[in-house]
Amino acid sequence: MAAGGIYVETSIRAPLESVWQATQDPTQHVRWDVRFTSIEPTSTTDSGTTRFVYTRRVPLHTVRGTGISLGEITRADGTRTSALRFTTSDPLSPIRDGRGYWRYVPAGDGAISFITGYDYSSGWGVLDVVVRPIIGWATAWSFDRLRIWLETGVAPEQWPLWSVLWFWRANRPRAGRCKRKPHGGSRRADHLSAAPETLRKLADPKGTA
Asked: Which segments show compositional bias classed as Basic and acidic residues (predicted)?
């Protein structure tokens, strides 16, 4: 994986449970996250670990992969987390193996800081120097799309990817509204260093389909 990773943070003025449901329910997740077309759970253990298959449709092709995730809803500090590992053997996918986390942090002003840190091994070799910024941008754009949905009630489907060109719509999703590095940190830092312990406990997602 790369020396650094991808970090995105947004502040959402919505109840913690609303943010959790919109991000943990696969049918809701794919509505706002442009990185996925479908996410289908295949099994769940008694400990809450969920295995799933995912797809991302692109022109003339559909990338398919498998993953495993585990959420924490009861933590002493009042936050929640979700850890994830995923993989694909598709030679056309720009991502091979990846891992990361989501963190949900209630703020004093009633908002929820929704944070992700993740990294992946490239499927396209040196072309990752171009791909990685695009994936980081897509993550941030999706986070702002989620924020707009939960704060205003405007469905994510009202903001298709090409709405990035709707310059006359000041209220459109914009990646630039999100933070791309932690407070006092660097965009090129190892953002997995702040991952919850559950990430280290997740099994290899290969062969989970």
From this structure: 198-209
